Amino acid sequence: MTRPAKSNLPFHRGNPSIVKVSFAQTLEQERERLLRLVADCLTQKEEFRPEMLLPLAGKLRQTVDDVLRRQAELFSKEELIALQSALHRTIDEQVQQLSQRFYERRFRELTKKALHDSLTGLLNRAAFDARLNEEFLRARRHARQLALVMFDVDSFKSVNDRFGHPAGDRVLIGVARALQSSFRQSDGVFRYGGDEFVAVCPETSGAAIENVLLRLHTRLQTIDGEISVSLSSGIADLTAEIASPDQLVQRADEQLYECKKLRRRRQAAAR
């Protein structure tokens, strides 16, 4: 009696349990291969872009076709269809995740750009309005202190006229850095507009800000050895009679105006 030839297949079709294990192993191996291929494609690019999706999906589907050709004799037609369907789902999931990651990152970038000043990197006026309103409501709700400080670069127009606008930009950048390093991380420092800056200081009194201004004055001296930089400031405390964030801003602006008037009088007297 002649024995049947020994099969070279990794399983025998007559044993369903072995077929199931082999199918699952093959599927898992090919899924891992697809994921590695995705990772390799991404590491070859400095930055992922949406236009990469179509070529990447095509490359992955070609990989699936190669797998099906290799496995054509190992699985039944139904199993090959199931393998193709499962691997295509893996491709679709990867492409969807990549697309979502890109648009989430773009959303974060656009949000940051919308709320940050492009020159100094500080948060801008829109971010200031939102933060002040938030801190105002919190201070009122919990009966806490809140201080607002407005700054103006003294004689900034003369800096631009004498040294040029690039020098003026360097001054604004230097002032922004000096402000950030002088205030606490819990405070908010913003470019209000032009050569004006503002700081929102929760749970702080105007008297405590005076120490900050002393540190700030020292740091301003190191901005530019050629240009003398100084700031006028106006401080406002949240008091019972202030009914809105706008009134707090108005109070700080009034104090800033008085500070600038006093500085001009001193300069005139010195002449």
Describe this structure in words.
The protein is an alpha+beta fold and 271 residues long. The chain contains 8 helices and 4 strands; from the N terminus they run ααααβααββαβα. The chain has a 4-stranded antiparallel sheet with strand order 2-3-1-4, with helices on both faces. The N terminus is likely disordered.
Descriptors:
disordered N terminus; 2 domains; alpha+beta; 271 residues; elongated; Alpha-Beta Plaits
Compact summary:
This protein has eight helices and four strands, in the order H-H-H-H-E-H-H-E-E-H-E-H. With 271 residues, it is α+β, with helices and mostly antiparallel strands.
What level of helicity do the residues show? Answer: 55-70%
Main β-sheet: number of strands, strand sense, barrel status? 4 strands, antiparallel
Strand content: 5-15%
Total tally of structural domains: 2
> What is Rg?
33 Å
What is the fold-level CATH name, i.e. the topology of the largest domain?
Answer: Alpha-Beta Plaits
Number of strands: 4
Helix and strand content put the structural class at: alpha+beta
Overall average pLDDT:
84
Shape: elongated
Q: Provide the CATH architecture of the largest domain.
A: 2-Layer Sandwich
**Topology as H/E string?**
HHHHEHHEEHEH
Please count the helical segments: 8
Distance between the termini: 125 Å
Q: Give the CATH level 1 class of the largest domain.
A: Alpha Beta
Low-pLDDT ranges = 1-21
The CATH superfamily of the largest domain bears the name Reverse transcriptase/Diguanylate cyclase domain
Strand order of the largest sheet: 2-3-1-4
